[in-house]
Amino acid sequence: MRPAALRGALLGCLCLALLCLGGADRRLRDRHEWKKLILVQHWPETVCEEVQKDCRDPPNYWTIHGLWPDSSENCNGSWKFNLKEIQDLLPEMKEYWPDLIHLFPNRSSFWNHEWRKHGTCAAQVDALNSQRKYFGRTLELYRELDLNSVLLKLGIKPSVNYYQVADFKDALARVYRVIPKIHCLPPSQDEEVQTIGQIELCLTKQDQKLRNCTEPGQEPPHKKEVCEDGPVFYPPPKKAKH
Asked: Can you give the pTM of this predicted structure?
């Protein structure tokens, strides 16, 4: 092959490679793209009942499960969790974001899991682009939205008597002015009805303002986990039953 032809062939191969890399890069970005954040809070008594593991003295208030981008996970495996970056947040983290079920070797392993799975994706947003910002902003949102106080003020308290799922939906929609998502455990042998387990409040991506989790009439994803209309058990802490 003549030198000029050889140079042309090599240039063509290089351009093709760059195009392929560009396409792969776009596909990677698309895979990690997301549209909204979900502040996920769970009811400790239900969590402990679900996993049936060592669940010592669960709190009697709603705690944080995580702050999750809606359609992206594990965005940067090289961005390791560093507990030192959130030292000043630890008192609040231990109180409001505990590892309820002790599945991990130590308390910070739960936060490590949440950072690597969800925080590295949330970091697309300037307000969440470090571990300190991600965990700090999540705690801020937890305090600002104050789900525990909202439910108590509306007269919705853990009880041996059943509520209706609509009691939760209507009350939360009235206060927050958005449609939340409520998850339940299906009926078990011990309980004849579903048990409330998790409440999700959805937020806009850039400024973390409340928004609907689903639009009116739209079926939510993962419908099997969402509470069915009808009675629901909101279990009181077992210590309070005696």
From this structure: 0.82
